[in-house]
Amino acid sequence: MDSLTHFALGACMGEAFAGKTIGKKAMLWGALAQSFPDIDFLASFWMTTSSNLLAHRGFTHSFLFCALLTPLLAMLAARIYRPYHIRLWKWMVFFGVAIFFHIFIDAFNNYGVGWFEPFNHQRISFNAIYVADPFFSLWPGIACIALLYLKRWNSQRVYWWRMGLGLSALYLGYCLYNKGNVDIDVKHILNKQQISYTKYFSTPAPLQNWLWYVVAGNDSGYYVGFRSTFDSKKEMKFQYFPRNDSLLHPYKDQEDILNLIRFSQQFYTVEKWNDTLVFNDLRFGQIIGWQNPKGRFAFHYYIQHPLENKLVVQRGRFKGWNYQTTQSLIKKIKGN
Fold first, then answer.
1. Beta strands 268-273 and 276-286, pairing class
2. Across the chain, how many H-helices and E-strands are there?
3. Computed over its alpha carbons, how large is the radius of gyration of the chain?
4. How far are the Cα atoms of 75, 143, 161 from residue 94, in angstroms, in the given order?
5. What does DSSP assign to residue 322?
6. Strand order across the beta sheet in which 221-228 lies
7. 29-69 pLDDT, tens per residue?
8. Which CA distances in Å does 40 have to 35, 46, 60, 214?
9. Of 96, 97, 91, 102, which is closest to residue 60 (Cα–Cα)?
């Protein structure tokens, strides 16, 4: 999730743990613990883009990092707040839960999280919630503002932290419910249209959880489409994209290419744009693909121009958005 969401969730968790004991400082400790795994952004200052893609949400989002950081923060907090007689094991539980909650929530996005680093490089992705979903972030954000405003002993503080954490948890469950229904419908449609596939995933289109972006295919290519939870007809239109692996042969041993293939979890295609080869990671969707089925993919990496890929994850995410494309997104969400 985005940094502000982690901050707000952590603040609510801090209030729940020690708000009555150490006051609003507990919110700061919770926000710190929730934000700490994202310290991996520092790697971007010395790593190449392709290496940084794997470093982000890598070791600092692992169980090992959680286990190492938890006692350090717990001992620091226990020493600072010794007069309050909060036992060390309670600090351990608090920081362990707060840090784990960060890496747990991030696994529900499509980027992938290295839970088992450095022993296993598999990245976990449940693909159930968009990385910046306002319907998830709204509740802890409102709760955090209310907690900052209310005085320390106000009885309403309990209501607000419970609301912030509880409604987010309910929304996450709702996202999983939507994903399950969409996957059942899409797989039925794929079989009905006699589309064979060995690889499949679905993930929400931007900023919501009702329209889902779907990819199904194999090593030859992929079928891409969109499915709304409000679609009543058991049918979909798919756009086919060949994988074009042969275009990578001259570069197959380059570190960048090996990193990109690993990062993409095999969901990629290669295209030639004029005189430039482009590596597409399909997991990040298309640029306004619900309006333009043949649209380019949001994540596109220029193989022959690596220095032009600094913002490779961000540059296509909201490119081309305007009032018309937003209206078409809403229309697509409403279903057929």
1. antiparallel
2. 9, 7
3. 22
4. 12, 19, 15
5. -
6. 199-204, 211-218, 221-228, 239-242
7. 999 999 999 999 898 888 999 999 999 999 999 999 999 99
8. 11, 12, 6, 29
9. 102
Express each pLDDT in 101-118 by its tens digit: 999 999 999 999 999 999
| Stated pTM of the model | 0.93
Helices (H), the chain: 3-22, 25-35, 49-55, 63-80, 88-106, 134-149, 157-192, 255-264, 323-334
**Beta 268-273 vs 211-218: how paired, if at all?**
unpaired
Q: How many CB atoms lie within 10 A of CB 213?
A: 25
CA 46 – CA 239 distance, rounded (Å): 38
Strands 297-302 and 276-286: antiparallel
The answer for residues whose C-beta is within 8 angstroms of residue 45's C-beta and 6 or more apart is none
Q: Is 129 helix (H, G, I), strand (E, B) or coil?
A: coil
Domain range summary for the chain, segments of one domain joined by +: 3-174, 193-334
8-state DSSP, 61 = G
| pLDDT for the residue numbered 252 | 84
Backbone CA torsion sign across 295, 133, 322, 276 = negative
Q: SS3 helix, strand, coil % of the chain, rounded to 5?
A: 50, 15, 35
End-to-end CA distance of the chain: 30
The single-letter DSSP state of residue 302 is E
The residues of the chain scoring below 70 in pLDDT are none
- Between CA 146 and CA 142 the distance in angstroms is 6
Report the distance separating Cα 18 and Cα 155, nearest Å: 14
